[in-house]
Amino acid sequence: MNSMGDLLIKHDLVNRINSLLEAKEKVIVAIEGNSGAGKSTLAGELAKVFDLNLFHMDDFFLTPDLRTPERLSEVGGNVDYVRFGKEVIENLKRGHAFSYRRYDCSKKELGDCILVSPRKLNVIEGSYSMHPYFTDIYDFRIFMHADEVKQRERILKRNGPILFERFINEWIPMENRYFKEFRIMEKSDLVIET
Q: In terms of Cα–Cα distance, which of 27, 25, 31, 26 is closest to 11?
């Protein structure tokens, strides 16, 4: 496939999501997968088609005070799943307006509040979006996968050589352990190879 638009068509994603929207009062979709697979891009394509709330797991990385060796050795511990559960998931379940704070990686602190209005469709994209701490809330789970060669090419192009090394030595091994131990791909409704 040459573009995310092609993936929408190939996997009939618009119709699949529309069917869920017709059957349910509220729909929550996860777009999970390995770094460089196109999760954010696919989420952006869906946002062009649907009126939705879009949440990025990158906004919930651990603050420095939580980055302890114990926490970082925990499977799936590289994300603040507790804060995400309280600030986003619990409020999505309630169905009312809410706010949350995005983690700013450049400042290593929580940034301004993001205001969220209730919408029928909510998409949560990013690695760790299907963490067992809150995975039972999803109506549709998409796993995006890029093979190692494509993944490395995309990350190097997107993030440059300095961050590339951190991905290879730090973040990708954490992701892979999480995917394997929690069987994330196997628990997905759809796997998309990119």
A: 31
pTM beyond cutoff 0.90: yes
Residue ranges covered by each domain of the chain: 4-193
Architecture of domain 4-193: 3-Layer(aba) Sandwich (3.40)
Which two structure tokens, joined as six digits, stand for 7?
Answer: 């993936």
Q: Is the pLDDT of residue 1 over 50?
A: no
Q: Does an H or E element contain 178, and which?
A: helix 172-181
Burial bucket for residue 25 (CB in 10 Å: 0-12, 13-18, 19+): exposed
Please name the helix (run of DSSP H) or strand (run of DSSP E) that holds residue 141, with its range, or none: strand 140-145
Q: Which residues contact 93 (CB under 8 A, 6 or more apart)?
A: 137
Q: Cα separation of 117 and 58, whole Å? A: 20
